[in-house]
Design a protein that fits this description.
It contains eleven helices and eight strands. With about 260 residues, the protein is of the alpha/beta class. It has an eight-stranded parallel barrel with strand order 1-2-3-4-5-6-7-8, surrounded by five helices. It is globular and about 45 Å long.
Length: about 260
C-alpha cells in the first residue's frame, strides 16, 4: 500500500517571518495525518527556522533544489550534506522551472538525484511535457525519456527512496489542470516504464505524484485515481486554508 505524499513547493515566495506565520497556521489546522505524508519545501532562507518549527510534528522538511557536489568552490550552490544538516528529508530535482530558467538538463538532473540519494535525501524527480509536445502527440515519449534519464545508474535498492512527480508544464501555475483521466493515463505509463526498468513489484510500490495547478476543488478527483499517490502543490501551498484542504483530501474509498 503506497502512502500518499502531499508536498508544498513554495518556490521563490515567503520571507523568513512570512514563512513562520504560514507554518503556524498550517500546524494549527493540520490535525491527524497518520495515513499520509506531508512535506513543505520553502526557500533556502527559511529552512533553518522551519526545521525547528516542524520538529515533533507530522510535517517533513524539503528543499527545492540541490547541487550534485558535497562541497567545493561553487558560489551560490547548496550541497546535499548542507540540506541534511539543516533537517531536510526530501529535495525536489528536475522541476521544469529549474530546467527552463537554470539550464538543468537530464544529465544534471540525474547527477543531482544520485547525489541526493548518496547523502540520505529522498529526491522528488519532476517530469512533464510542454503544450506543443502534448499537441504533437509526443507527451508519453517525452515523459518516458525523462524518467529513464533521471533514473540512470540508480540501483534497485535505491529506487524506493525516490518519488516521481508528473507535472505537465502547460499546467504549472496556469490554472489549467490535466483531466483526472489524462493524469491517470500518464501515471500508468510512468509506472509501466518503472516496471520495465526495474521490476513490477518495485514499480508498484513507488509513489508518483501529480503536480500542475492542484487545488482544493480538484484534489479529490485526482487522488481517486489508482496510480496517483499524492500531489506536488505550488500556488495553493502558499495559503494555509487551501493547502490544508489538499492535505485532507477525501480518501478514495469515500468517493
Amino acid at each position: 500500500m503506497r502512502t500518499p505524499l502531499i508536498a508544498g513547493n513554495w518556490k521563490m515566495y515567503k520571507t523568513v517571518s512570512e514563512a513562520g506565520d504560514l507554518v503556524e497556521a498550517l500546524l494549527a489546522g493540520l490535525g491527524a495525518v497518520s495515513d499520509r505524508e506531508v512535506v513543505v519545501c520553502p526557500p533556502f532562507t527559511a529552512l533553518h527556522l522551519l526545521s525547528s518549527l516542524f520538529a515533533g510534528t507530522p510535517i517533513a522538511l524539503g528543499a527545492q533544489d540541490v547541487f550534485y557536489e558535497s562541497q567545493g568552490a561553487y558560489t551560490g550552490a547548496i550541497s546535499p550534506p548542507m540540506l541534511r544538516d539543516v533537517g531536510c528529508r526530501y529535495v525536489i530535482v528536475g522541476h521544469s522551472e529549474r530546467r527552463q530558467y537554470f539550464g538543468d538538463d537530464d544529465a544534471v538532473v540525474n547527477r543531482k538525484l544520485r547525489a541526493a540519494l548518496a547523502h540520505g535525501l529522498r529526491p522528488i524527480l519532476c517530469v512533464g511535457e510542454t503544450k506543443p509536445q502534448r499537441d504533437a502527440g509526443t507527451a508519453e515519449q517525452v515523459v518516458v525519456a525523462q524518467v529513464q534519464a533521471g533514473l540512470a545508474d540508480v540501483g534497485a535498492t535505491q529506487l524506493p527512496d525516490v518519488v516521481i512527480a508528473y507535472e505537465p508544464i502547460w499546467a504549472i501555475g496556469t490554472g489549467d489542470t490535466a483531466t483526472a483521466a489524462d493524469a491517470q493515463a500518464m501515471h500508468a505509463t510512468i509506472r509501466a516504464t518503472l516496471a520495465a526498468l526495474y521490476t513490477p513489484e518495485l514499480a508498484q510500490n513507488l509513489r508518483i505524484q501529480y503536480g500542475g495547478s492542484v487545488k482544493p476543488d480538484n484534489v479529490d478527483e485526482l487522488m481517486a485515481q489508482p496510480n496517483i499517490d499524492g500531489a506536488l502543490v505550488g500556488g495553493a501551498s502558499l495559503k494555509a486554508d487551501s493547502f490544508l484542504r489538499i492535505v485532507h483530501f477525501r480518501k478514495r474509498s469515500m468517493l
